[in-house]
Automatic annotation (TrEMBL):
This is O-methylpimelyl-ACP methylesterase. GO terms for molecular function: catalytic activity. InterPro entries: AB_hydrolase_1, AB_hydrolase_fold, AB_hydrolase_sf, Epox_hydrolase-like. Residues 40-267 form the AB hydrolase-1 domain. SUPFAM superfamilies: alpha/beta-Hydrolases.
Amino acid sequence: MATPQRANLERHGVRIAYERTGAAEGTPLALLPAWMITTRRLWAAQVEHLADRHPLILHDARGSGGSDRPTDPAAYALPELVADAVAVLDATGTGRAVLVGHSFGGLVAYLTAVLHPDRVAGLVLIAPTIDVAGGEPTPLQTAIATFDGEPAGTGGWSRYNRGAWRTDFPGFVRWFTETALGAEADGEQRAAALLDGLGTTPEVLAATVAARSRKALTGRPPRCPALIVHGDRDAINPTAWSAALAALLDAPYEVLPGAGHTPQVTRAAETAHLIETFLKELA
């Protein structure tokens, strides 16, 4: 395994922390960041399972980890996040890679494949925040749409609210990270997620919410091979989203019984095996 290379790049005044690790040769995997309540440590278990056989490229999304934390919503527009992902590929000398995206990072991976097809050899989307049908709003979509209103209560999705974050941001982070991890997570995984979440600020997360919308995803889909993975106990994104996306992309769809929103953490070996199988079929 090659020595990890860690550095920073700068785009329009925003520093992005990134690294290349893993094998010196093989199909590169770009493990994209999810929402800014996480860091690239979200992929630690996958790095452990995949690094011996694949070059791995990771970065901290703007707003998290070792990257800068702008508070202007424009800084978190999807084209900016896509451009960050491509800039990291450039900085690591990676011509094409399989993009692995989880949750909101799945949307960034999807759009990167649409906008830069020459850079994307394939997609692995884990519980992606991609609604191609635009059906009834989910609790997350409702929370985003009512983010600046009065909190409807003191618990659950009522915590996903600007006023609630001003009152008790740590409480929100604990609730959200534990909800995302699900019942399978152990104490170490919960502690790591909480620590990463508390490393950002309510102002940063509010800026990311302002940059998002509930509109259904339209336009031409990417044309590269894809794999969709989703836990059937996901309390953040519905499995119906992934089923519809898999049908649109004509992609295999793997449902993990009992897994929550983050199977790459709580079902690390199983998720890594699915990625490896996809890569072998891709080859």
